Amino acid sequence: MAETSGGSSAHGYKTIVYIICMVAALGGLLFGLDQGFIANSLDTLTQHYKFGIHDKESYSAILATGGIFGALLSGIFARFLGRKKSLVLAGFIFTAASAFSALLPPLPVLSACRFALGFGVGIASFIVPLYLSETAPAAIRGSMGTLFQLMITIGIFLIALSNVFIARAFADPRTSLPLMFLTITLFAALMFAGSFILPESPRWLMLKGRKDMAVAVLRKTLGTQEEIDSEIGEIEEALHGPQGAGIGIIFRGYFFKVLVIGVLLQMFQQLVGINMMIYYSPTIFGYAGMTGLVAMMAVPTVNMLFTFPAILWVEKWGRKKLLYVGAIAMIITMLAAGFAFQSIGNVSDPSLIGGAPKALLLISVIIYIFGFAVSWGPVVWLVCSEIFTLEVREVGITNTTMFNCNFAVLVMN
Ligand code: BGC
Q1: CB count, 10 Å around CB of 53?
Q2: Residue-level pLDDT at 6
Q3: Has this prediction a pTM greater than 0.85?
């Protein structure tokens, strides 16, 4: 990015935009930390809480159940509290629920905390992509939109790594489990504190008729008066666009068509089975006799690393092409992984499993994760934050995000 004087880039926006977007995207990091928590903590949780199979599944899935409620109420929070205060609220919930979990309360209370964390995830999944798409200048809107997904994958990676090391360093779950939860608390507190310094979304301010405040925010982020005028003009046009306002919009053909597209995208993003891999890849590799660091870290590492190029590709190739490429890669590799797993399942002693099916399983899982990371992961959140006009954005994203969480619950159970 070429810099001009005063922290302004050659594209007409200021460097502070990146800081604002990074702070807001911490909501994505918390999503990832909570989502990825399960994979390498299941054994420790099981030791302390004497989890049976059913407990494991319900503790894992309750995050997504909380997400449904968080997403359901987010539209109301976003409209009435504003985008910024909703982020503050999510930060508070993340901090309180993870700190409380670190006290190792009885299982029903621990589960209630995970539900609350899910509630925070539901709010963050709604607000962060929305805030990024409304606050980032047009030139980098796509890239900043994918930042949400990048932060999710960084969160999943970080917690997988720290949980592995904590579990290895401290054998007693009464020490290791609080440390695992405190890792989340640390980042949650950072997000909570950081969200206070964020400016409000100029689009929300305009929606509330506070044009002066919207201009003041744009003055902080955009380089020239011309840019500010053009952005204000664009928002005004969106506000008074052909769709108009009011509840009647829901029944109009255009909105409904767009909503169906968003819902289907979110539904399939979960139905491809990504969270089965995110939660259970160490367990799946364990069945195949692979228990080392590679088995524990392969999925989160590949997932994170390939989200970086996706940020560029989403602008260069466009959203649709990436979705096709990712879907094809996932279909082929899921079939290959199933084939490898079938031959592994026929061997009763893991030490007798041959190198070929193990290698096929590992390689197909890695390419599958690559397929998701460069396409359905980032593109779905981005598209859902872009397709609705300003007036119906809250109701549209509420519904699409709820479908993400609904189908996550379905897949996890
Ligand atoms: C999905 C999550 C998933 C994550 C993996 C997100 O886009 O919504 O369910 O765990 O990607 O990176």
Answers
A1: 8
A2: 45
A3: yes
What is the rounded CA–CA span in Å between residue 385 and residue 130? 6
- Provide the 10 A C-beta neighbour count for residue 17: 21
In this structure, which residue's CA is closest to atom 11 in ligand 1? Answer: 377
Ligand 1 centre to CA of 321 (Å) is: 20
Query: To which residue do tokens 């052909």 refer?
Result: 242
CB of residue 110 inside a 6 A radius of ligand 1: no
| Rounded Cα distance, 281 and 299, in Å | 7
Neighbours of 409 (CB within 10 A): 18
Question: 398, 71 in Cβ contact below 8 A?
Answer: yes
pLDDT level of residue 361 (50, 70, 90 thresholds): very high
Query: Which atom of ligand 1 lies closest to the CA of 307?
Result: 12
Buried b (16+ CB within 10 A) or exposed e, 137-156: bebbbbbbbbbbbbbbbbbb
Q: How many other CB atoms are there within 10 angstroms of residue 297's CB atom?
A: 18
- Does residue 35's CB lie within 6 angstroms of at least one atom of ligand 1? yes
- Per-residue burial over 326-364, b if 16 or more Cβ lie within 10 Å, else e, is bbebbeebbebbeebbebbeeeeeeeebeeebbebbbeb
Give 8-30 pLDDT, tens digit per residue.
555 677 888 899 999 999 999 99
Q: Rounded to whole angstroms, how far apart are CA atoms 405 and 287?
A: 28
With 0-12 / 13-18 / 19 or more C-beta atoms within 10 angstroms meaning exposed / middle / buried, residue 160 is buried
